[in-house]
Design a protein that fits this description.
2 domains; MetI-like fold
């Protein structure tokens, strides 16, 4: 067959390229919407995450807006020295301090506060009862053992957990898809060695392995992200590997090789789009697993640094303060809601990409 015939054969045998918003995508979206539980879970999850992204405007120990001597300030977005309001110090003022409030009033000023006047790390020194204190008008979810507002903790903790989970899901998916593509496309010894290594890693007790690795690194957002990435990337390998093993011997792949196309171009431009259909259904479940792993490490004291808005650390406080049930209720409620919504979304996504329902 000449070059022109090879091109025609490759074009005829290759899967048809469909526009992203074509009929198939619309059918899948219709199937997704038909699963009411998953459809509304998606919107509820997005709404909650959107609110958490605006956490500084909902729970903060600084005013959103402040007027002093005719000038407008935004302490939530910018730090101002106390001298800007007639004080004596160049450091940022404590806006809860009556002295600072008197300075603002003397300057004919006013303040617009968030709904909750405490951030996740604000220690309330004016609580009349011992901490952890029960829910009240001042702290609607109560306070923890460090006199911090529990509502602010779960609000900021939700944002941190979901953001961490999204980053870990993206990174682990990228590594897992690449590893699975290499395994399935090249096969042979490459596939055999990769598969034996993955089986060894999967046979290890993951949580204990994470605890050992986390104990050797300085706790931070990105160090814990790297530690968890070492074990979470294997989730998608088997799915992508199976798709590439199936497609590597199809006619359009053989024709592409005959035309002299490079392996990387064939793998990631021609085969990978077909493999992604099965892969996308796993992403909500990977996200929920990532969040659960971070919470488990925080609960055991091997996760994020102390002072971070951590749901796992809040649950650990609940374990140590059984006489303060509001701590456990708040932590459990936010985790149960978050993971349940993600599971419902994953179930709807699985239905949407099921060929029997979407085609």
């Amino acid at each position: 067959m000449n070059a022109e015939g090879s091109v025609i054969a490759a074009q005829e045998s290759a899967p048809a390229r469909r526009p992203f918003f074509g009929p198939l995508t619309r059918r899948r979206w219709a199937v997704f919407r038909a699963n009411k539980r998953g459809y509304w879970s998606l919107w509820i999850f997005l709404a909650l995450y959107g609110l958490s992204l605006c956490a500084e405007l909902i729970a903060n120990d600084k005013p959103i807006l402040l007027s002093y001597r005719g000038e407008i300030y935004a302490p939530v977005f910018k730090a101002y020295p106390e001298t800007a309001f007639g004080g004596d110090f160049e450091t940022e003022p404590d806006y809860h301090d009556p002295f600072v409030q008197d300075l603002i009033e003397e300057g004919d000023g006013w303040t617009v506060w968030p709904i909750i006047r405490f951030s996740y790390d604000t220690i309330d020194y004016d609580i009349p009862q011992p901490v952890p204190s029960a829910p009240s008008m001042r702290h609607i979810f109560g306070t923890d053992g460090q006199a911090r507002d529990v509502f602010a903790l779960v609000l900021y903790g939700f944002r941190l957990s979901v953001t961490f989970g999204l980053l870990l899901t993206a990174l682990s998916s990228a590594v897992g898809i690449t590893a699975g593509a290499i395994q399935g496309y090249f096969g042979g010894w490459t596939d055999l060695l990769f598969q034996r290594g993955i089986e060894i890693l999967q046979s290890l007790p993951v949580l204990y392995l994470l605890i050992v690795m986390a104990s050797f690194v300085e706790p931070s957002f990105f160090s814990i992200l790297g530690v968890l990435l070492l074990v979470t990337w294997m989730t998608l390998v088997s799915v992508v590997r199976a798709e590439f093993l199936r497609a590597r011997n199809l006619d359009y792949v053989r024709a592409a090789r005959a035309l002299g196309l490079g392996n990387r171009l064939i793998m990631f431009r021609h085969i990978l789009p077909n493999a992604m259909v099965a892969t996308l259904t796993f992403l909500p479940f990977i996200l929920s697993t990532s969040i659960a792993l971070l919470t488990a490490l925080d609960f055991l004291g091997f996760g994020l640094p102390r002072g971070s808005p951590s749901i796992g650390e809040l649950l650990n406080q609940a374990k140590n303060n059984l006489y303060a049930p509001w701590l456990g209720i708040a932590g459990f409620a936010v985790m149960a809601t978050m993971l349940s919504l993600l599971i419902f979304i994953g179930e709807a996504a699985r239905d949407a990409f099921d060929p029997k329902k979407a085609l």
